Amino acid sequence: MRRLAKLCLVGSLTLVPVLAYADRGDTLQLLDLFGEVFERVRKDYVEETKDNDLVEAAINGMLTSLDPHSGYMNEKAFKEMQVQTKGEFGGLGIEVTMENGLVKVVSPIDDTPASRAGIKPGDYISFINDEAVMGLTLSEAVEKMRGPVDSKVKLTILREESTEPLELSLTRAEIKIRSVKSHTEGDDIAYLRVSSFTEQTTDMLNAEFKRISKDLPKLRGVVLDLRNNPGGLLEQAVSVSDAFLRQGEVVSTRERDPSKTRRYSAHSGDELVPDNIPVVVLVNNGSASASEIVSGALQDHKRAIILGTKTFGKGSVQTVIPLTGHGAIRLTTARYYTPSGRSIQAKGIDPDIIVEPAKIEPIKGSDKIRSEADLRKRLENLQEKKDAEKKAKGGDEEETENKKGGFFGAKDDEDKDGKKEKMDPKKTSAEIAAMEDFQLQRALDLLRAVNVYNRLVPEQ
Question: Which residues are catalytic?
Fold first, then answer.
């Protein structure tokens, strides 16, 4: 032990006071050490420093050394955070964390410069306006990405499947988060998209569902889309879960002191969707924090089928503690657990049905493929023969009627003037986009299959 101690001392003389103080366990002595270093920096650093900047940097360094989600916010950053949780803020519309010294994208927010530029969950931001991110704190990097509305910012993106860095130029905008969107799928399924959990989310969810319910006389299923939802307020995650649950625990938060464990439960009577209506929740690796609370609660209570890919795995709770006249600190104070007692920290929610993003393309049929109709001496279709005879006797009138827009509508979608009509003009851009969404289509197939099964196999 003595030899090891001597080697440590020889290797780095700066370890001497640290080891001495640490061995004594004297907190006051450690604070004296901080004061000594602070004074030495003020006196001898090559450039003049500001006391406020030094202290704030020291506090932030202490907090960021704990985990990626703890940190210090000065007054300006604290005010911006308060505005953001209300659902309106300025910037690019991107939820980020720090990993390996780079800014990692948790999720872009819908209808923002970041999402329109094609930024994806899991992307790494290595340069901001040609300035390296390495060496910056998360708050410093975020501040550089923010700026006046309509101003430009250049991001260099590292993406796993790309061999070369991607350079994107984005125009900053005032971000007004509409955290809930909805549309109908056919006349039987409601689609609800929750992009973040702000103070307005639950009220907007209720309003959107009531609005589209008028167009769903036979509601047979609900799709709750939490993909690329980076999370937000814990109480909003609880109230959204409550909208689908009649009773039972939603989530529990456990601090270092076991006596401070808190449990959040659903309340009967305020359900948004009746129990007999099946629900599918869509998730992916951009679904984090509050999104995982909701999907975990509905999964544990067997209230919904979780479909998609594994979620982000952020299972910690941050408490914002204001500091009088000096902003606030964001401190990780607890872990949260699903109703069955699962901690998803760094693990995520595993979907019940894994469906990777994909694109469906029709397979061209081969001219060489033969069918029964191509075989010689095949049996005739008697019904087809009768229809042909009927048509020969007087079917021309029926055919003409069909061309005019009878049972099958106008031929080739032509109106009486011979002009082409648009295919299903009632479809919104969101519904058209949904047709190309492979994961959503599988969710719709699943809901309709459940309803068919329930009709064929009644409850015993």
Answer: 289, 300, 314
* CA–CA separation, 122 and 200 (whole Å): 27
Q: Which tokens sit at 415?
A: 């109106």
Residue 334 belongs to what H/E stretch?
strand 328-337
User: Collapsing DSSP states into helix, strand and coil, what is residue 423?
Assistant: coil
203-234 residue pLDDT tens:
999 999 999 999 998 999 999 999 999 999 99
- What CATH number belongs to 88-176? 2.30.42.10
**Token digits of residue 303:** 């209230």
Q: What is the pLDDT of residues 40-81, one digit of tens each?
A: 999 999 999 999 999 999 999 999 999 999 999 999 888 878
pTM for this one?
0.75
189, β-bridge pairs? 185, 221
CATH 3.90.226.10 is the classification of domain 180-354 = yes
Distance of alpha carbon 407 from the chain centroid: 44
- What are the tokens at 55? 């202290």
Give the Å distances, CA to CA, from 235 to 178, 317, 410.
18, 12, 53
The whole-chain average pLDDT of the chain stands at 85
Judged on CB neighbours under 10 Å (0-12, 13-18, 19+), 181 is middle
DSSP H or E segment with residue 444: helix 438-456
- What secondary structure letter does DSSP report for 256? S
161 near 170, Cβ under 8 Å?
no
Burial class of residue 349 in the structure, from the number of CB atoms within 10 Å of its CB (0-12 exposed, 13-18 middle, 19+ buried): buried
**Secondary structure (3-state) at 82:** helix
- Specify the DSSP class assigned to residue 45: S
Question: What 3-state DSSP class applies to 384?
Answer: helix
Domain extents in the chain: 25-65, 88-176, 180-354
Q: Is 418 helix (H, G, I), strand (E, B) or coil?
A: coil
**3-state class (DSSP) for residue 275:** coil
In the predicted model, is pLDDT for residue 270 greater than 50? yes
